Amino acid sequence: MKKYASYFVLIFLFFLLAFVLKNLQNKERKTTFNINFLERYKDVPTLEIAGFEEGENWRGNFTRDSGRTFDGDTGMNIFTQGKPNIITLSKPLNLTAFDAVFAYVNIDTEEMIKRIDSLVIGFQTKDNNKATFVVPPLKPGWNLLSLPKKDFKQNQFDWGQVEETSVELTAKKGETAQIALDRIWTQKSIKDKTDFIVYPKEFFNLKTAGKKTFLHLGSPLLTQVLFNKSVEENDFSYTVSFAPKKFGTFGLSFQTNTKIDEGYFFAIEGEQTNTWRLYKKEGGKEVTIAQDSLKSNIFEKEAYLWLRVEKKGNKMNLSFSVNNQQYVSFKEVEDSSFSKGYVGIFSKGSYLINSVEVKE
Q: pLDDT value at position 73?
């Protein structure tokens, strides 16, 4: 028996090693980064003053525009020649709890800016008491207006009894001026931004839909959000839950540097949001690793969708879910360019972000 003892030891060690390796391979990933935005912002709802959609009871000289908008289906164009053009919306509002009003205004060119004499945002109560804000000079393209209530011209104005919102555009003498509007709202400031390394300041805000308040990314341009989370091991899953408001591009960036000019990018894109693509940025070049059309349109307005990237070694699996239970794989691919880096989101359009989670 003694002469076989060493063989028994080797066999035992072999099975022990096999058991350990199997358990390592099947090791359950643990959550190392998680943000539930609905929970985080549940006590800071926004108040939507105007979205310029069909059905809003605006009065005055304006046209609705489906082209100059990124937050919903339509924005609003205001023209003026000579005398001021004033448009008004009758809608009771209580703005007492908020410190500032925000709005998106678009001006096409520098030449158009020179034609504008003044742009005034105003509010009025039932007794015709008014609060007005003269907007400072703007830049070409989309501008985020941040209008502190304390800076409105007012005389004992009751912000809890607003009955009417107005926009007044005046052109310089002999000129014709035009602007576009997309959203007017108010919210409390996002105080804790420690989870973000990079974010688009002009297009990074909150939005309440129903009774739920989301992180809102709405932009006419492709914008990037980088979370303060670096994945150091090449074995992880990264999941983002969101709901589209206006279709465009939405994607996950992962294993990137802080400049977001190196790393992987998984995007749902295309004119009808009907294609997916995995690409990488490396050495100043953008290289597509895999892409395909979607078999069906997985996007529905204001319906939750989960996108997930799973990576183990050089293998990456890209998938989506409509219930966070069953995930459908787009494809499994291999690439060895990056083994660690930060996670983030990139988008163009309007999206409500529900949650992000990293498991390692």
A: 86
